[in-house]
Amino acid sequence: MRVPPTRIPSAIVRLSIKAFKNIFNSTCAVLRCQSSDCPASPSRSSRFAAANRLHFRQTSLIRNACCTFERSFQGSSPFRSNVNNIPPIVGCRLSRRALAQSRSSAFLRLAGSILLFTCAAISLAAQPAAAGKSQSSPEMAPVDFVDVASQVGVEFKHQAHHSPRKYLLETMGSGAALFDYDNDGRLDLFLVNGAPYGDFVPKGTIPHKTGPDFWNRLYHQKADGSFEDVTERAGLKGDLYGMGVAVGDYDNDGFDDLYVTAFGGNRLYHNNGDGTFTDVTENAGVGGSGWSTSAAWVDLDNDGHLDLVVLRYIQWDWDDLWCGSKENRGYCHPDVFQPISMLVYHNNGDGAFKEEASKVGLAKPAKALGLAIGDYDRDGHIDLLVSNDSMVEYLFHNKGDGTFEELGLESGIAVDGNGRTYAGMGADLSDHNNDGYPDIAIDSLANQEYAYYRNNRDGTFTYDSFSTDLGRISLLHSGWGLRFVDYDNDGWKDLLIAQGHDFDNIQATFPQLRYREPIMLLRNLSGNEFVDVGTASGNVFKQQWVGRGLAVGDIDNDGLLDAVVTENGGPAHVLMNRTRSSNHWIGFKLVGHKSNRDGIGAQIRVDTSTGSQWYTVTTASSYLSSGDVRAHFGLNRDSSARTVEIRWPSGILQTLHNVTGDRYVGIEEPTSPASNVKQ
User: Fold this and answer.
1) pTM of the model
2) Which of 397, 422, 554, 663 is such that its CA lies 20 to 30 A from the CA of 119?
3) CB count in 10 Å sphere of residue 134
4) Closest-CA residue to 410 (of 449, 377, 375)
5) 18: CB partners within 8 A, 6+ apart
6) Rounded to an integer, what distance in angstroms lies between the CA atom of residue 337 and that of residue 317?
7) pLDDT at site 538
8) CB-side exposure of 485: number of CA atoms within 13 Å?
9) Residue 326 confidence class, pLDDT cut points 50, 70, 90
């Protein structure tokens, strides 16, 4: 058992900051640190905070100072051997350019060396207590997820041809959807697949599927919990190099439809209600173009019909570019390619859509991968979160008049805690700390730290990856699909992440990183801290996967949230949650009438003896994937919910009292503006 380290008193931290401030500023000036290489200095961060309200804590200042000096002296004698023996400092990412700029005076080297060792000691002592928790403590209670894919009949392999020309398309993987397409009360599974292409592909080529190995797959869940492949009968084989999937009942007929994104065009499949689907893309006018990624069904104007938001990644057309060293060709960085705007299709209510991204203020060029919805300022209008790869993240605020304004910089979510952009991949927007306002999680590639933004309840966010320990935990990992999920029903939303680097040769350049990684499960400690419980749990968390898509839902209806993880060029994993817990739970399946039939965008509040929880009904979030539309709440020790309040997209407020738990409850939207019901 490891004893949690003693924290350094705040007075010592303040004195350390004051004593080292001048050395820090002088050294940064000597090294000519640029914003892309070194953390922002105190003066620079102050000006930046005035622009976008980023808040740098005292601990962040020490971390930045340590990072600067660690970078400055790591490659220099006589301090090299000493520096290499110091554990990594939380939040520090090494830069070759910064290491090359280590030509300073002997005095500054000596002063920097003293500062470096002092900072390292502070960093070690100030590590969050979670790093030293015993695996037998309550916070580290073992989790039990079991991969049952082969046992239940899900035999799927994603096709991603890896060419010697390192086409970026082959790194991205594909998504999954958990949804009940036949309304039998059991979740079914849809998996997106790629398409073949050669080692050299001419510009303008759109790959098409050539056989069963490349088909998308629909698996129907039978009463015994096994799955049967019904792809051909359902008419969902697909034809393009697929990417993502979005689920929603766009025509309000009671059967969920599928929208599948791809490279070169997208497909809308209408659910006929008899186990089959019809491709209505052309008639609906939602084919699109370019390289589409994540998509979401959401009623942007609250007219009762689901609109469609489709992200696109970059302007890309099989460019034969050599990136990396002469000996080790790599995939080109997104900076090499130009951004492209998303597509936004307004639902006309007659089966047809009209593209209106420019009209509604959503046509801002992006390198977009992740998409989540939620009302972050609780003004009654659904907003959009977009995670971008290696450029600023976007937060589109719904102005309530049918248009949006992008406020990522003003709200404080555009960059990380050091004022830098990062490789935004998967995204989620959900209330992590149970204060009624949705918070933000966006994962990224290794050496960048996953981002957690705490909602300040005034339209702004605070970057809290450091204080929650998410930065330290995630530093050497690469994340894609992620969702806030209450895996043990204790009433706090935890964080589940599919992981794996995008470069298959990353270890040749960075030996400490891995192409294949286990999934990550981070337990939420009362909204204040994350603890990695996967390392103390079952065999699933030790498996090395090239994780990409992540869909979450209660597959066996036992009240414990399960998940499906897709791999790039590998199998799909069906992860059943077998965690032993005596906690209770409750789930809701909404049926809208004035609102869209799925109730997407509805805000649900559940009150128990331990407090309140909030959730926005959605099938979006994660990366390229679509989850269970049912809203799930952990009730902890309570066997019922004292109060359930639902604010429907139509504006109707519905309140239920004393709702018995440990079941899924179907709730119909009332016709009156306010309704009180006892369950």
Assistant:
1) 0.83
2) 422
3) 12
4) 377
5) none
6) 10
7) 84
8) 26
9) confident
pLDDT tens digit sequence for 79-88: 222 333 333 3
What type of residue is 643?
Answer: T
Confidence bin at 55 (pLDDT 50/70/90): very low
Helix, strand or coil, per DSSP, at residue 643? strand
- The Cα–Cα gap between 230 and 238 comes to 13
Decide if 568 contacts 158 (C-beta within 8 A): yes
Instruction: Give the count of alpha carbons within 13 A of 85, CB side only.
Output: 6
Token reading at 117: 């060792």
As a whole number of Å, the CA-based R_g of the chain is 25
Contact 636, 667 (CB under 8 A): no
Asked if residue 78 has a cis previous peptide bond (ω within 30° of 0), the answer is: yes
- Three-class DSSP category at 474: helix
Q: Which of 318, 14, 55, 291 is nearest to 174 (CA)?
A: 291
Residue whose tokens read 């049926």: 591
Share of residues in the chain with pLDDT > 70 (%): 78
- Least confident among 20-29, 43-52, 141-150, 323-332: 43-52
The predicted pLDDT at position 34 comes to 33
| The one-letter amino acid at 375 | D
Judge contact between 397 and 419, C-beta under 8 A. Answer: no
pLDDT-based confidence at residue 677 (cuts at 50, 70, 90)? low
d(CA 535, CA 532): 6
Helices and strands in the chain, H and E counts: 13, 39
